[in-house]
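haha ok so turns out i had the wrong file open the whole time. this is the CORRECT one, sorry everyone. sequence first:
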Amino acid sequence: MEYTKEILADKKVKLTIKITAEEWESALQKAYEETKNKYRVQGFRAGKAPRRVIEREYGDTVFYDEALNDSFYKYYDEIITKEKLEVVGNPNVSVDKIETSGVTMTVTTAVYPEVTLGQYTGLELEKQDIKVTAAEVNGELKTMQEKAGRMVKVERAAKNGDTVIIDFLGKKDGVAFNGGEAKGYELVLGSGTFIPGFEDQLVGTKAGEDKNVVVTFPAEYPAEDLAGKECVFEVKVHEVREKVLPELNDDFAKQVSEFDTLEEYKKSIKEEIKKQKEQKAEQEAEEKLLNMVTENAKVDIPAEMIDEQADAFIHDFEHRLAHQGLDLDGYLKYMNTTVEELKKSRMEDAKKTVKTRLVLEAILKKENITIEKQEVEDAIAKQAEFNGVSVEEFKKNVHDHVLNDIANGIVMNKLFDFLKKNNKI
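then structure:
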């Protein structure tokens, strides 16, 4: 086998591969040995017909596809290994000629792009000042007060904010419809849980009262037979409940926290809010630094890499939909869009993601940032301990990509430590 390599203007590599007559004959014989059982020839048992007989029966080119496919991968892998080419995506292959003297094929493939790093050390950026206001503390305190509230049955008329316990039966033109019935339903008035107008008409009702609630379903309501239609709900009010909030004092602090006084509890809330804001500010600063480092670099990204990343985004989105009990086809129909349009909308994000990854990989290589095997093993041991299993059991039950993610996480942490150490935030 001989080949020539040519660097094209679009950063792709063109390989012209010439396979000798002997190599081509060997490939055809191998194709025959591996596929002969598929061919039926009268007078021969399956897999026993000679190659020449099969070629005469099915045509001289019967084994060409298998032989070409096998030859391509054999010699293509050999060449990219020898030339140390980091190829991207699927190669474009064309067969130029097939003759008794051999085979010539042309392969065009995108290769991993070269990254020209810009400034990635000595950069300066400001981190957001951290302030915690009294309103933020009181807001968190109010949330905890709401959680600690208790529901009390009242005899008065219901008002917004109350919870009513109701039975209801929805009817359109006097006929009950599917999904329009419930018993013992707990509805918070003013919550906006039901369609507009429903909850408003229950304000002022009392326990034991019957009420016909007349509403019009929104025009965009998912059930077409109800969309834009006026319906009547026959409602029976069983109870009206009011939420009673505890007084904000030392007893409240003891009830909801580990502190003995309200002031101590408020101080801890302030510290926790500050801690969360500091973590958020740190993450935002890291993101800004990463954007600066990425923008300072130059790289011509092959379209294949961007396309693959966009496909990965769609695949991940489909996976997350599945966890919610949804499917991509249903989502696309609901959003009145297509996979192609959804993918197109993510192309810029894909391009940014690919560039960031390439730049980080270039920095890792230039700064010789690596990880030791023991570091990975220690991280796996911690993860196994967290899951309450042995290291052997953890490795056995997780996919390889989980172990790769653990290793990648370690090296990325080292990289960010390097960037934070060598830049001023």
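The first strand starts at residue 2 and ends at 7.
again sry for the mixup
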